[in-house]
Amino acid sequence: MKKILITLLVWANLFGAGQVGDKAVGFDLPNLYNLDKKISLNEYKGKVVLVNLWASWCGGCQEEMPIFVELQKEFKGSDFHILLSTIDKEPKNAVAFLQSVDRERVLKSVYDSEKILPKAYRCIGMPSSYLVDKSGTIVEVYVGSIDEKHVGKLKAKIKSLLGE
Questions:
Q1: What is the C-alpha to C-alpha distance for residues 52 and 78, in angstroms, rounded to an integer?
Q2: 127 Cβ partners below 8 Å, 6+ apart?
Q3: Whole-angstrom Cα distance, residue 96 to residue 102?
Q4: What ranges do the domains of the chain cover?
Q5: Helix (H) or strand (E) run with residue 157 in it
Q6: Contact, 131 vs 139, CB < 8 A?
Q7: Can you identify the CATH homologous superfamily of domain 18-162?
Q8: Tens of pLDDT, residues 46-65
Q9: Which terminus of the chain has a smaller tally of CB atoms within 10 A, N or C?
Q10: What DSSP element (H or E) covers 148?
Q11: What pTM, to 2 d.p., does this model score?
Q12: Cα separation values, 51 from 2, 5, 65, 125, 154, Å
């Protein structure tokens, strides 16, 4: 029994989602809307960031994206930012989907063709989101889509992290 428990703990540590308390994994990836330019997590140092791993073919991702657009609009002008990272094979598919829900381009997205971030964050499901505080520490992990029922708790956490 002890061996099974130890094995499960090791497995969870190696293959589980990025953990609360972990430092957010830095990255420098192509901007989805302009692949010649890069977006770096370092640009958001000292800010509260929701890093979201998504794909245009993911049903849960499609459901939560309009919520993220409204959330980013609500916190416009604050130190809160949503930073998306798509793993679509073709960036044009991700762009087409985002343009259908985010015509004003309030959300920033990177193109992760090599799936670097899902590996680095030990992502176990799509979508996955990681709320990162101003010091760069993961304070919340959300596996699966964030829906209307859960967005209130997320807003409260963001406001708390912003000191509001």
A1: 19
A2: 52, 53, 54, 58, 60, 61, 64, 144, 145
A3: 10
A4: 18-162
A5: helix 148-162
A6: yes
A7: Glutaredoxin (3.40.30.10)
A8: 999 999 999 999 999 999 99
A9: N
A10: helix 148-162
A11: 0.88
A12: 36, 31, 13, 14, 13
